[in-house]
Amino acid sequence: MQSLSVSKFCKRGLLLTLTMLLAGTSYAQQRDFSKVKIEALRVRDNIYMLVGEGGNITVQIGSDGVLIVDTQYAELSDKILARIRELSKGPIRYIIDTHHHGDHTGGNAKLRAAGMTVSGGNVGGDISDAGAGAQIIAHENALLHMTAPPAAGQPAIPSAALPTLTYFTPKKDLWFNGEGIRIIHQPNAHTDGDSIVYFRQSDVISAGDVYVTKTYPFIDVPNGGSIQGIIAAANNIIDLIIPVYGQDGGTLVIPGHGRLSDIGDVINYREMLTIIRDRIQDMIKKGMTLEQVKAAKPTRDYDPRWGTDTGFWTTTQFIEAVYKNLSTAQGK
Amino acid sequence: MNLFIRGVLLLATAAGSCLLTPAAFAEKNIAGVWAGTYGEDWPDRFPGPELGDYGGLPINDADRMRALTWNASLIALPEYQCRVHPSDYANSFADIRIWEERDPITEKLIALHLQHFAWQTRRTIWMDGREHPPEYAQHTSMGFSTGQWDGQVLTIHTTHLKEGWLRRNGAARSDMATVTEHFIRHGDVLTWTVVVNDPLYLEEPFIRNRDYRYSVDNQVANYPCDSVVEMVRAPGYIPHHLPGTNEDVKIFAETHGIPYKAAMGGAATMYPEYVKVIRSLPVPAPR
Ligand SMILES: [Zn+2]
Ligand SMILES: [Zn+2]
Question: Out of A222-231, A261-270, B33-42, which region has the weakest mean confidence (pLDDT)?
């Protein structure tokens, strides 16, 4: 890419970062989605990554139907559905929300309605009509955030968009389309309700926003996010990865935002975050105030790649969040 | 012999020779095994660069900080041990093999494949005019390369690289860099020029040449690598130096009597005129 397209890329990254916090509804009011294209990238075998606006969507297809991870914005649901239908005519049976943010759950209601749950046994009780739509799986904390009283001026999330099946244990397993799928909670990372989704046979991890490739990760501190948790999540992903000789390929990782990755990208991300964490931790130990830490520019070498001075999630805000996290007893 | 018969014979001879000799193309044939030559930049290559030597690299301030906080113990971590040299760096080491992939019917060149001895990496240079993938596609250590012949020069454009290094002493090359390469064959000598364009970490493009000699007798050896845990460390530990604490980066300048500033690189240090600047700078006390 030439420098021109790099700057375009960075601006796009900024825009996407901006969308990370905003609820789907409020963001949708400001954005014209008519020009957004939903593109599909084949990741491996029966796994695809859909790229549009908002978080990346993972689609797994097979004889059991369709499973999707994250749903972007409601305004894009028709386009997303059309793209999924090009990949498979099977029913959408499961939606997994990696966390509660609107850029990952905005399409829950429409995509759920387009799908179906096969009912029976202990599946019947959690939805009123088994034919009503797909099951939506999320960590319990994601549901708690989605049902919390909305911010002033924001509408409540309709019940049709809420997770129908939650878990509060470290993991939840599912067998679908001929492979084991492990949904693993990443405590206090991007939020306190993050899940990564590991497709064991396809050898693909859908990471949600604990792993992003465009900007410093957004740490949603009010919703339980922390730098330590994000680093722990990156290490957990690295533990799951088995690379090919030469550290290229092997297990593939679909980030919450950004490009399809493998171990090389994830270890660079982990390295960057760990080094910044260590620097700020050292400064806190030396008794430096937040203003002194900011003035020392502890991220200066990584800023050209990950930082930004404009938009919603700036480098300064990232440093502030890390400082705040590490200054608490828990963060140390 | 009358003129007519003579003409027919001439035509027949010409046609025959067309059938017997290979067709001449503007593009050169660069397939084969090429042995690396090491006259240029020897200390940087097999012995390896010294820590604190960033002279001649057009790195910016951010990349200098990457270099000065880098800790070589990083590459002892299992997930770093077998990391391959990226395609813009791998050509510094040993022999290469190049082979062609051609359409069996039209003989059109679809791709050139290149294998480095170093880390046994293979890359593909697409010659069929295909487009580069979208930005959200995977980046790799070899990147995505397309090439075309400009007269007798093969020019290659590479995108989708993972983060790599400009010199293996901590000077990083970002994953947003693109690389332009030129292959020029002069008989049995192949010159390979690499131009690294990194909008994030370079002040100016970084240019590096490597020369190879056509090899009749050699083959490219294999290069196995197995990651092993070499020492027990705390989970998630990443070796690095806190900014301003790595005194070892001064050893190079002090050992060789080079001003600290000159050893820190930057675009100006690439040019011959910089010798005058070096002479005006204080030389550190010898170690
Ligand atoms: Zn997001
Ligand atoms: Zn998010």
Answer: B33-42
Residue in chain A nearest B199 by alpha carbon: A3
Kindly state the greatest CA–CA separation across chain B: 94
**A274 vs B contacts (CB less than 8 Å):** 236, 238
Distance CA A209, CA A204 (A): 16
Distance of CA A116 to the CA centre of its chain: 24
**Interchain contact A242–B (C-beta under 8 A):** no
What pLDDT sits at residue A120? 64
Average pLDDT, chain A: 89
Does the beta carbon of A303 lie under 8 angstroms from any beta carbon of chain B?
A: yes
Considering every ligand atom, which ligand is closest to the CA of A191? 2
- Residue A28: C-alpha distances to residues A150, A176, B33 (Å): 16, 33, 58
CA proximity to A310, closest of A225, A211, A223, A215: A215
CB spacing of B141 vs A303 below 8 angstroms? no
Q: Is the dihedral of CA A4, A9, A14, A15 positive or negative?
A: positive
How many A from CA of A311 to the centre of ligand 1?
15
CA of A225 to the centre of ligand 1 (A): 13
Q: Where are the domains of chain B?
A: 32-50+74-215
Angle at A119 between CA A113 and CA A120, to 5 degrees: 165
Residues A77-100 pLDDT 10s: 999 999 999 999 999 999 999 999
Query: What pLDDT, on a 0 to 100 scale, did the predictor assign at position A6?
Result: 36
Q: Taking each helix axis from N to C terminus, what angle separates A315-327 and A263-285, rounded to the nearest 10 degrees? A: 60
Q: How far is CA B276 from CA A177, A262, B54, B279, in A?
A: 69, 46, 18, 5
Residue A195 has pLDDT above 70, yes or no: yes
The pLDDT confidence band at residue B24, using thresholds 50, 70 and 90, is low
Pairing of strands A135-139, A165-167: parallel
Chain A residues lying within 8 Å of B137, measured CB to CB = 41, 259-260
The CA distance from B257 to the nearest CA of chain A, in Å, is 28
- Residues in chain B with CB shorter than 8 Å from the CB of A9 are 135, 176
Q: What are the distances in angstroms from CA B62 to CA A298, A305, B19, B58, B243?
A: 11, 10, 60, 12, 12
- Quick one: CATH architecture of B32-50+74-215? Beta Barrel (2.40)
Amino acid A13: pLDDT? 39
| Closest to B178 (Cα-Cα) out of B88, B62, B83, B61 | B88
Distance from the alpha carbon of residue B201 to the mean position of ligand 2, in angstroms: 29
Spatial separation of the C-alpha atoms in residues A332 and A175, rounded to whole Å:
38
> Which domains does chain A possess?
2-327 (3.60.15.10)
Residue B281 and residue B287: Cα distance in Å, rounded?
A: 18
Residue A149 per-residue DSSP state: P
Please provide the distance, in angstroms rounded to a whole number, between the alpha carbons at the two ends of chain B.
Answer: 89
**Residues in B 154-173 with any Cβ partner in A closer than 8 A:** 159, 162-163
State the smallest CA–CA distance between residue B24 and chain A in angstroms.
34
CB contact under 8 A, A259 and B79: no
Q: Test A304 with B82 for CB contact under 8 angstroms.
A: no
